[in-house]
Amino acid sequence: MTYEVVLEGRTALVHIRAVNGGYAVSVDEGAEVMWSARRLGEAEWMMGQGGPGRAVGLHLNGERAELQISGHSLRAKVSDPRKSALDALGGAGSGDVVSPMPGVVVRIPVSQGDVVAEGEVLIVVEAMKMENEFKSPCSGVVSEVLVTVGEALDSGARLIHVEPDE
Q: Model-level pTM greater than 0.70?
């Protein structure tokens, strides 16, 4: 899973995957570091890197995270960039589907002229090793398909336009 973490004004992408009773963690495409982790309580973990570890307190409230590590308090904003990007899509009456992240088009199950329902999958884009389905923001007719399968996208690229039903 990939998270966007904002801590002390710095934004980083943190990649976490479960492995052998612990986690492999990398920051901003850096080298993976292995962490052992054992839950101590509802909001407390014992975490370490090959040694005895240290207690880490963690409280999550939406996208806000409060941590206590060795007596130091940290506050961070933690979000799933894929979820944020997909939530940003759609918008009543807006027929544009825009990629909020760079990626590669892997599937386009609709064509120009197709009638689509709100929420129907229009295009699939691979970003950060995950396939993201972009759905129609409204019911209507696909009036433009602006990309092709295999095309690399920049953040903000217009993908498809749906002419909304009246």
A: no
